[in-house]
Specification:
Arc Repressor Mutant, subunit A, alpha+beta, 3-stranded antiparallel β-sheet
Length: 307
């Protein structure tokens, strides 16, 4: 069986659609002194439907000071990563999250204070632009922490015996509950059902790297004795992860009021798409997106549009 790193490298290297690669090159060209890698992920990767959709990219930069002319943008990317910006290219739209190589590595690991990065990169992604071979290796190494982090969390809250795909589903459900997400409740299952064979293979490889000891017996994962209380350590950090995830969602939305033109419209589009609502943004909300967000988020929580 291939190692987890080999699987990640192979998956990252699978060619994306030409339009996606061209878009990635366009994004990198806007950061000529800092761009290291561009990663494509999310629902558009799975469906390969691009027209009328919002594509999802992560731009990995060498450091924030090199990426921006604005000291304020560099400061906020460092303090509250990532910064998120809208991009358009050749008739397509995207949102681009910016992280430097160190943050991308750290936020894919168990020590991260929020789930957002490793929850996403435990799923498939494509390396659609890279500055050089070193950038490719660093991206793959960073992503190698994502699946073990997610599955370790699921192991801490499961029975002593569990199916690998059920473990993935538990992990994704936990991460969705640790963010304000405008997603249907069946979303974790649908992500896995898109390619269960992939999650089976990656799960078996990733489980060899979880702090909580386990072994495969037949097609079931068994949790082994835990003399160092790693299970309790993992359980104890989840109240803070859930609290931080909700607060960070609101804080990033507030930051986007200053860094993301049209961010309030994107928020409404995303919620309407996933939650089946019909939110319409009024002109005053576009002029004052931070104030609008402070009114909008409580209403969405009350309606169950985000959780």
């Amino acid at each position: 069986m291939l190692s987890l790193m080999q699987m990640i490298a192979e998956e990252l290297a699978v060619p994306a659609l030409p339009q996606v690669r061209a878009f990635a090159a366009h994004i990198a060209a806007q950061y000529p002194d800092a761009a290291r890698a561009v990663l494509f992920y999310g629902s558009c990767l799975r469906s390969e439907e691009l027209e009328g959709q919002m594509l999802d990219f992560y731009l990995i930069v060498s450091d924030y000071d090199a990426a921006y002319d604005s000291k304020a943008l560099a400061k906020w990317n460092r303090r509250l990563p990532p910064n998120v910006f809208p991009f358009q290219h050749d008739g397509l739209m995207a949102k681009v999250a910016v992280l430097d190589e160190k943050d991308f590595h750290d936020l894919n690991r168990q020590g991260a204070s929020a789930v957002s990065v490793w929850a996403r990169f435990a799923q498939p992604s494509r390396l659609v632009w890279a500055a050089d071979d070193t950038a490719r290796r660093m991206a793959a190494t960073a992503i190698s922490g994502a699946a073990p982090t997610l599955l370790n969390a699921a192991l801490a809250f499961t029975e002593r015996e569990v199916d690998v795909l059920d473990l993935w589903q538990s992990g994704f459900r936990m991460t969705y509950d640790a963010e304000l997400r405008a997603e249907r409740r069946d979303r974790p299952a649908s992500v896995i059902e898109f390619d269960p064979e992939r999650y089976e293979r990656f799960g078996l490889a990733a489980l060899q790297h979880t702090p909580i000891a386990n072994e495969l017996r037949g097609n079931k994962v068994h949790i082994l004795s835990d003399p160092q209380s790693r299970i309790m350590q993992e359980r104890n950090r989840w109240p803070a992860l859930r609290r931080n995830g909700k607060l960070l969602t609101v804080a990033r939305l507030a930051k986007a009021a200053f860094t993301y033109a049209g961010g309030i419209d994107y928020l409404a589009w995303k919620i309407n798409r996933h939650a089946g609502t019909e939110i319409e943004i009024k002109p005053w909300q576009r002029r004052w997106p931070l104030v609008a967000a402070l009114f909008l988020v409580p209403k969405l929580l009350a309606k169950g549009a985000v959780r």
